[in-house]
Write a structure and sequence with these properties.
about 100 residues, mainly alpha, 2 helices, elongated, membrane, flagellum, cell projection
């Protein structure tokens, strides 16, 4: 092809064609999102997989958790606070590297 046969990329017709294509893509995207929202009725009905049974309640007396007897169980191996746990995790990671 000769250079004169190629359309000028900055001509009004080419700019309108590109802009028109962009508008078409945006319209199709909005229409697809609208259809998706319209036909997903199962998520909005109360008979779906989850529904509210009751509201949250504040107990009048706090529940105190007792540690397992004899220091056994899952809580026995964990430090009582996050900084202690983090310090122990960093130390163990440093020991694991050769």
């Amino acid at each position: 092809m000769s250079p004169s046969a190629l359309p000028d990329p900055l001509s009004w017709t080419e700019l309108l064609r590109v802009f028109g294509g962009l508008v078409v893509v945006i319209v199709v995207l909005v229409a697809a999102l609208w259809l998706l929202k319209r036909f997903q009725t199962g998520l909005r009905t109360p008979s779906g997989p989850m529904r509210v049974l009751a509201c949250l309640h504040v107990l009048s007396t706090p529940v105190e958790l007792q540690p397992p007897a004899g220091g056994q169980g899952l809580g026995a191996a964990l430090p009582p606070t996050f900084p202690d746990w983090l310090r122990r995790a960093v130390e163990q990671r440093g020991k694991a590297k050769p």
